[in-house]
Design goal:
about 400 residues, alpha+beta, D-amino Acid Aminotransferase, Chain A, domain 1, Dna Ligase, domain 1, Rossmann fold, four-stranded antiparallel beta sheet, 13 helices, elongated
Amino acid sequence: MNIHEYQAKQIFAKYGVPTPRGLMAESVKQAVKNAEELGGPIWVVKAQIHAGGRGLGGGVKLARSIEEVEQLASEILGMTLVTHQTGPEGKLVQKLYIEDGADIKDELYLGVVLDRAKEMPVIMASTEGGMAIEDVAHDTPEKIIKVAVDPAIGFQGFHGRELVFGLGITDKTEQSKFIKLASALYNLYLENDAEMIEINPLVKTGSGDFLALDGKMGFDDSALGRHPDIEDMRDISEEDADEREAGKYGLSYVSLDGEIGCMVNGAGLAMGTMDTINYMGGTPANFLDVGGSANAETVAKGFEIILKNPKVKAIFVNIFGGIVRCDRIANGILEATKLVDVHVPVIVRLDGTNAPEAAEILKNANIANVITATDLADGAAKAVAAAKQA
């Protein structure tokens, strides 16, 4: 689950991470009132969406008068903001954050993510603040300092010293401030089951203080039960409606850009299915894991969600029956054709528990657009061919 910048800064405040003063607004009138309350003389008007690159897309602008705050708020609120993270469809701006201007001397980057290879959190820092960290990693990877922190010992002084020395911070007072901030960020990450925390840019002011000018946070959905205060921050208008609907039925769904819908049981098999489709010259339209308890209703719902995508020209159902029986999936497919207008070819590969019974069910059903496959490669090839013919 992701949250907005203004929400991230509310959490920062609880952990002593310094930020400029700011107030959220959902209308132009409220934005003006917030600016008056903050007092100026410079304000930053920021679009609040779950995506980076807002500044480059025109969603972050500087105002030097109340009148300019009103003008910029009118322009940004309600716009469809397109950034490198939103995709070409962009995101509708429904909230603004009105923030004090800052005296910026230097811009840094600071973040905490999980290093899966090391199996522990890693703190990343760079002198190249304000830039996309992906670009820095690609063009100048030596400018990114990575410090892994073993949760068994937690953040220690030597972790902080490695960060400040790597960033070239030589002033003792500034070193102390930065280490304190990095420690707070690590504790925030660990205590709230975060998946990612990013401050970009983290600015050093003319007085040598550090301020989080931006804040991004993502949290482990599976751990939200331990953090009701964070779950309350969920903004469902920022989430994919189909992914949300799929979750209600126990389906794991992620929309992609291809033309072959995928319905698979098990995340590993789903990834292998998408890889095989790509290898055969096709492109998957989604990731959809029906899990181990699929029934006719969930299979029908899976078809319904897949077919909402107008790009889908064929559907590949690839099930290896272990916990879920193949005959149950076969019956689910038949039921789906009654409940949903399945107007594209459906390639079905069923193997494992009760596979022969499933094959007999599909054969006797005699549905024209259902094509059976013998194995993964055969099914992927037939799905790609069907999509191309369509």
